Amino acid sequence: MEKNKRKPVIAGNWKMNNGPAAAGGLLDALLSAIPAQPVCEVVVCVPFLDIPLAAEKLKGSSIALGAQNCHFAASGAYTGEISAPMLAETGCSHVIIGHSERRQYFGETDETAGQRLKAAVEAGLTAILCVGENLTERDAGQELEKCTAQLTAGLAGVTEQELERVLVAYEPVWAIGTGRTATAEEAARVCGALRQAVAEQYGAPAAQKLRILYGGSMNEKNARELLAQPDIDGGLIGGASLKAGSFGAIVDACQD
Description:
With 256 residues, the chain is α/β, with parallel strands linked by helices. It has helices spanning 20-33, 51-58, 84-89, 100-106, 110-122, 135-139, 143-154, 160-163, 184-202, 204-209, 223-227, 244-253; strands spanning 9-13, 41-45, 63-67, 94-97, 126-131, 166-170, 211-214, 234-237.
C-alpha cells in the first residue's frame, strides 16, 4: 500500500493538563479550528477526569476521543486504575500505550505495555503504541535496536487482524517537550525500520497498512516536512495540542 492510501492521523496528547473547566474551552476551540471533514483522522487524548465532558462535546464531530493509558485487566483489585472496557464504555475509541513518561516515571516495561495493548485491542479500542530511544541510546547508535525491541514486545500476542487497530508512534525521548526534533530524514529512517520490523513479523501487506506517527515535538512549523516522509503517517502531538490554533495548523498540514 502506498503512503497516499494510508489516511493520516493527528492525535493530541494533553498529558496532565486541563481539568474539566479548562478542557471545555479548549474542546470548543478545537471544534472551531478543525474542519468538519478533515483529510486526516483527528484524536484528542485527554486526562481521565475530562473523558465524560469530552465525550459529550465531541459527539457527532470529526474528532475522536482517546485516553492516555489503560490497565491490562478488565476489572479487579487495582486501586486507581482504569480498564480498557471502561474507556470504551465512556466513549473512547483510542488509548495511548507505553508512552515514555509512563516508562520513565511509573515503571512501565515493554512487557506491561504489551499486556495493555492487547487488552485495549480486545476491548475494541485503537491502541497508539509509543516507542523511542533516549539520548544515551541515540548517541550510541542503538535507536533502531531499541525501538524495534519495544515494538516487538508491544505487539506480543497481537494477531494480524488486531494489528489493524494499532497505531505506532515513534517518539525519540530526547525530543519530547524539549523543542528539539529529529530531522525529517532521521525520523523517516526509524519509522522505515519499524515498518520493516512489522513486515518481518506480519508480512509486507500488513506492514504497508500500518500507520506510523512521529511524536517528537511536531509543531505547525515542522509538520509539513515530517508528514512528507514516506513512512510517517501523522503525529502524536504534545504541547501544540494544547493550543487550538497550533493543533489546527498541524491538521491542515495533512492536506499537502
